[in-house]
Amino acid sequence: MASTMRAEIADFIDTLNTDKARILESRYPEDELHEYADSAVPVYNRELAELLADDPGLATLDEPDLVPADADIWKRIQIAIYERLLQAGHEWLQEAKQEARDAEAEEQDEEDDDEPSDPVGRELMRIQRRDTASDADLRRQYHEGLNVLPGETRDQYVRRWRRERLAQDRHYLALGEKYDREHPDQRAPTTATRRAAPKPTRRATPRKPTGKPTRKR
Fold this sequence. Notes:
2 domains, elongated, single chain
């Protein structure tokens, strides 16, 4: 079956979808697209000829000044294919980023609905949200090999660090509650304690004499 440009782009998008998580987590996802597009360009003249027969527009380049002067027809076709793939890749990346933002917003809404009523639970949820926001940094640290255990996967690395930070936060919260119980006089006044505090009584102001005799009953 002869190769077509539409099929090449479809295969290219399938590859991007397979590696979507890695591309989105990369510090420079646009650079990743260039590498994927470059590796997806056919190298055999027969495939290039079939693509040119399917799409004669490949003979025309969008930026011909960037093509080396000594480039033959096959090299020009490869550059044109690369430009088509890269354009499709940028469109895919914008959609993937928007989908990730929408999913994050939906997850945030669900967390808001399930927010605990007790102060400790709310504080722990705040900590979890903070950790979720920093997961991207943890994934970058994993790729850099920072404190990675032997045979540990990226997801295991992120979960381990989140558990350790959450345990540490729980420890400090427990210490704070213990201190408040042992030193109630040093706690900041809450709304309830302010309402329960007795209000200062107003002293009666003595009346000035009017000079009129008082009537005895």
